[in-house]
Each structure stands twice: as C-alpha cells, then as structure tokens.
Write a structure and sequence with these properties.
274 residues, alpha/beta, two-stranded antiparallel ribbon, globular, 41% helix, 10 helices, single chain
C-alpha cells in the first residue's frame, strides 16, 4: 500500500510549503500533494495561496525522491497545451517524479473573482476530455492534429518526450457514471474516490474497460484517509480500505499538525506496508 500526504498548501509562507514536502519525504510518504487554487479554501480573510504548478516545479528541486502532484489541477485554469508543457517541464525537473491529477474544476466564486471563464458543467467535462487527449498525444513527441470539443490542435509537437513513458501517471477523481468513469477507463492510471468504491462502481469500471480492451487492474484505486484520531482508529480504517481493494491512501493534513503526521508515520504506516 502507498501513501500520499496533502500538505494543505494555503495560509502559510512558501518556506513552510517546502518544509512540509521535505518532512513528508523524510518520514516515508510515497507522494506529496498540493492543490490548484489561487485563494484560500478555508478560514476568514485574505491569506497566502501559491500557484499549484509552479509550486510543484519548485518542490522538484527542493526534494529528491518523493512524488509530486496536485489533487487536482483544474482544466479551466490553463490552456491544455500550456498545461501539457508545464507537466513535461516538471517531469524533467523532478527526474520523473510527477503525478498528473486532473479535474473539471468547481470553485465558481474563485473564477468569477479573478476573471477566469467558468463554463457549464458539460462544457467543463468537454474541456477535461480535450485536456486528456491533448496531454497524452503531445507527450508522444509526435506531430498531433486534433479536432476537440473546445480546443483543437494543428500539426502540434512538443519535445523532449517525458522521462516517464508514455507519460506521467494520470489521476482522475470521482465516480460519475456518465462522464467521469468513462474518462477514467480511457485515460487514468489512478482512480480516486474519497470514501472508496462500491461493488457496483467497480463492476461498472470493469465493463467500461472491457469495452475498450483495457485490463481494469491497470487502474490503481485510491481513497482518502483522515489522520485525525488515534493511531488504532486510523489503522483500522486504513486496513478496511486495503481489504476493499484500495492500493493508495491520500492522507489529509490533520488539525493536530505535524506531530500527528509524524505519529502516524511512526506507529501506523510501517504496519500497513507489510
């Protein structure tokens, strides 16, 4: 079982962002995760909030072995080709430690305040599909022409190819049966749902994969794990999720802070990896 740590990337100076990433690496997490917003998501009043992609670029030089990602990058914030090149850059800067989390964005108030276009839900899903197509095709290094729903390419090419072949792992969250799950089946290496997955969802994913000739076991299932509570409670929850087929736990930064994370890493994490 693998474990990632959400470093709660807001309302703190950048040095603390770096410190938390290095701390996660030191205590044995597989990955460290930021988020993709430009304003804080909780708390009152203004506060620090750093861009997700450039933060990952900085962390690629501030760490040595831990994997780096955003949970998740919103497709409305960057043109798909720009995002693809940013991912390619971070993949090389980190020597192949990037994970690409993608979602269709949701925080309308942030978009309106900052003047960022916020299309309808259906249009954002169309953009997410374009993003995934463009990302995977451009990372081939070959010439790409693509007639998309909202973004099209004409004889486009990016080099070099990524360190991770054929591209860095793609993470998609959610279990919407009409749009999200078919995209997971086509593109995702990791499938995240906060509370895990029902039998019906797992069966539907198997059917979607079978329809396109893909082995569903290629898609790692991911759930979230709260680090609040006693080590015994956290371990019981994690073991239950593991028994249900979860292979990766996305751990939220606890209210008790760094000491609680260290306690988890010392008392619980080693047992769950055996």
């Amino acid at each position: 079982m693998e474990f990632g740590l959400d470093i709660a990337q807001q309302r703190m100076p950048f040095d603390e962002v770096v410190s938390r990433a290095r701390f996660a690496e030191d205590v044995g997490f597989t990955g460290v995760w930021g988020f993709d917003h430009f304003v804080p998501m909780y708390g009152e009043g203004p506060g620090e909030c750093f861009d997700g992609m450039t933060t990952l670029a900085a962390l690629s030089s501030a760490t040595t072995s831990i994997r780096l990602g955003l949970m998740v990058a919103g497709v409305t914030y960057r043109h798909p080709s720009v995002f693809a090149n940013q991912c390619l850059t971070i993949d090389h800067a980190s020597h192949g430690r990037l994970d690409i989390g993608l979602g269709n964005a949701w925080f309308e108030a942030e978009h309106r305040a900052l003047g960022i276009d916020f299309p309808s839900t259906g249009e954002r899903f169309d953009l997410l599909e374009d993003q995934l197509e463009i990302l995977t095709r451009l990372m081939s290094g070959e010439e790409v022409s693509y007639a998309g729903h909202r973004v099209s390419l004409s004889a486009a090419r990016m080099r070099p190819v990524p360190v991770q072949q054929p591209h860095p792992p793609i993470w998609i969250g959610g279990a919407g049966p009409k749009r999200t799950m078919p995209l997971v089946a086509r593109f995702a290496d990791h499938w995240h749902n906060f509370g895990g997955f029902s039998t019906e969802q797992i069966e539907q994913m198997a059917e979607l994969c079978e329809a396109i000739g893909r082995d569903p076991s290629e898609i790692m299932r991911v759930a979230s794990l709260s680090l609040d509570g006693s080590p015994a409670e956290i371990r019981e929850t994690a073991e239950s999720l593991r028994e249900s087929g979860i292979s990766y736990l996305y751990c939220g930064w606890p209210g008790a802070g760094r000491d609680q994370v260290e306690r988890f890493a010392t008392e619980v994490l080693p047992a769950l990896r055996t």
